TrEMBL record:
Transmembrane segments: none annotated. It comes from the Bacteria. This is FemAB-related protein, PEP-CTERM system-associated. InterPro entries: Acyl_CoA_acyltransferase, BioF2-like_GNAT_dom, PEP-CTERM_FemAB-rel, PG_Glycine_Bridge_Synth. Residues 171-303 form the BioF2-like acetyltransferase domain.
Length: 361
């Protein structure tokens, strides 16, 4: 009898152990709601882990996606969104997540994170990509290649706008007040039209390819009120505009741009202050100024606001490639292309740009 009981207990232990092993599955449409429920409560997850990015990336860029989740006893314990980019110009890659600042595995247990990680590496090998790329906030793989290039800027806001104003360093605060004195006004837009005009004008001036208007429309349609468009005007004239994402108690001004007139009236300075002012009064606690490359004007602009940079840990596992890709605009080999792009008519740049930028990730 004791032998039977022991065998039964052993089977029970085996079943329990098997049940606790994370099962890796691909997200289906019916899984999206519980995927997002997990993302909302997982401290490691970000806005860029949301299920809606699958629709955006597939429909805006035509890339194949693999949104994996780890399940234990019917509960999601981890997610890892991935997208594959195949480009003759820029190579073949698998990443979490292209076009997004943050990514990589987000999990409530190390077992789930490890299982998702193994699945991503297995998929990368199966697809024979050049490399697998994670956009991590914290380092995960000491043995992978890494880029010491990107930092992010995040700061806690006070619920009182005046205290936030006084926290801005003096020179930058003077620029904000210049915009206020210029009688600039802010409006929330229901569509991307004015935003796209300001954004495309601005990136053309910088000499970088533009995203398609379809991409921004999809972002707005997919994320609804969590994707907000704020436009700055003066006497009805478009000055600048910003697309921001909302996640938990954070606001992330993610895409923005200004018309040439913005410089003379501190339009961009006023725009970011106005976003900060609006959002702290509605309960947002963190202002996430987003990613910047070290040594760029964008990096210095954010530091001028009193934000301190935090290193981002972008990691690369080489699969078929022998070196980490370098598609960043600071690469000297792209300088001629940038100068040529700046001289190109805006309408032509807006037509060609989306076909190039979709492969950059």
């Amino acid at each position: 009898m004791s032998a039977i009981i022991e065998a039964s207990q052993e089977r029970a232990r085996a079943l329990n152990a098997s049940a606790s092993i994370p099962q890796i599955k691909l997200m289906q449409p019916q899984d999206a709601a519980r995927w997002d429920e997990f993302v909302l409560r997982c401290p490691q997850a970000s806005f860029f882990h949301r299920a809606g990015w699958q629709r955006v990336i597939e429909q805006a860029f035509g890339h194949k996606t693999y949104f994996y989740y780890a399940e234990v006893d019917g509960r999601i314990e981890g997610v890892l969104p991935l997208a594959e980019i195949k480009s003759r110009l820029f190579g073949h890659s698998l990443g979490s997540l292209p076009f997004c600042v943050y990514g990589g595995p987000a999990a409530s247990s190390e077992a789930a994170a490890d299982a998702l990680d193994r699945q991503a590496q297995q998929l990368a090998a199966t697809l024979k990509v050049g490399h697998l790329e994670y956009h991590n906030v914290s380092p995960r793989h000491a043995d992978w290649h890494a880029k010491d290039l990107y930092v992010t800027f995040r700061k806690e806001m006070d619920p009182d706008p005046e205290k936030n104003m006084n926290a801005i360093p003096r020179k930058q605060r003077a620029m904000v007040r210049k915009g206020i004195k210029a009688n600039l006004q802010s409006e929330i837009d229901p569509d991307v039209e004015r935003f796209f005009t300001a954004y495309s004008t601005s990136v053309h001036r910088l000499g970088t390819p533009v995203f398609s208007k379809k991409y921004f429309r999809l972002l707005k349609e997919t994320f609804g009120d969590d994707c907000e468009l704020m436009t700055i005007t003066r006497d009805g004239q478009l000055i600048s505009s910003v697309m921001s994402f909302y996640f938990r108690d954070e606001v992330l001004p993610y895409y923005g741009g200004g018309m040439p007139e913005a410089r003379e009236c501190a339009g961009n300075d006023f725009m970011y202050w106005e976003l900060m002012r609006r959002t702290c009064t509605r309960g947002c606690r963190i202002f996430d100024f987003g990613r910047s490359k070290k040594g760029t004007g964008s990096h210095d602009f954010k530091k001028n606001w009193g934000f301190e940079p935090t290193q981002l840990h972008y990691e690369y596992k080489l699969v078929a490639s022998t070196e980490v890709p370098d598609t960043n605009p600071l690469n000297p080999k792209y300088q001629l292309m940038i100068r040529t792009w700046q001289k190109m008519p805006l309408a032509l740049a807006n037509m060609i740009g989306p076909h190039i930028v979709k492969n950059l990730g």
